[in-house]
TrEMBL record:
Residues 314-367 are annotated as: Disordered. It comes from Saprolegnia diclina (strain VS20). This is Uncharacterized protein. Residues 338-353 have a biased composition (Basic and acidic residues).
Amino acid sequence: MAEELPTIPRVAGPMSFASVSAVYQGPHLASIGGFAAWRVAFLSAAGDLRLAKYYTNPNYEDAVLTDLISPAKTHLLTSRAECAEPEVPSGLSARKWEKHMQRRQARVQERVALALTKEAAHLKSRALRTARLYLLSALAPPLRSKASALSSPSAIWSWLDTTFRGAPIHATGAGLFRQLQCAMQIKHMRGEDAMEFFERFEIAANEYIVPYLTAAGSASDATQSYADVVGDRFRVALLANALPPHLRDQFEQWQAGFAHWDYTRIKQHVVSQMEAAHHAARAASPPQELVHDGLPVKKEPSCSFCQSTRHSEATCVQPTKASAHATDQVPPRKRRRQVEEPARIKTEGRERAISIADSSDAHVKRR
């Protein structure tokens, strides 16, 4: 029995997958003939909802889930952590009170960090559930009834890949032309991870190349090595079509000195260039900003004393400086009295003790 596809309640906030229904609005996957085109369209739609990587990576961890927790929720967790820690006892000296307060603030920060981690885990489970329902909604009823037995979005995705990519394809002229169109529609998106791009590209390219070489002739007509050379040329040509001009223009340089176009070697060069560009972009980004949905978002200060984002209140030196500054503001006469008063009391006590001792000696002599 096919699993019912409920609608996720609309929730205001920056998490795009939480503000839409769990129903895919594109065409349903029903047969192998449309798998390549459906796959590209579905991953594109899932990427807009921050769900695509939950299908292709079974161990995916969204690094920004903690940053997407609402300010109201963060304030609530902080308040609970404050209430859970006992107050610093009164009657302590200023130095001891400050040390106790710093330790308490550190414990509060630890409680807040733990609570945020648990909240992020809750958001991840919610995202996994939404991703699974979203994928099921993109399948035709016969496929959906089979896929609903799988518990995770990555498991369903792996099953679909195995089922459709391993199935035989009838290499008709119309079918090959349709697969070629799908392969030529693959384009590298700016900022896309190199491995994710090549996963998309190679699936679509092989959907065309493998049936084409199979239909071209039997083993008696062409050797396997010749088929490999032709396949590599096809892949390099389709890859050039998928890449931006600044990468495509380097193909001739990478190929210099080699007799045949080697797809594996070209791929290594492209991956190296993409990773270098990615690292350069990260190094050039402002350290005080995060990026969410393509927009820069300033980090919230973690210290209320100096508004810094690099340390917490427990390790801030501003309270100590403020205390010293407050001491400097005491009037000179009062400060001198505060310094001289203990010495005067100590001197008077010593003189009092000597006087008592002299009186005792005089009394003993008279007796």
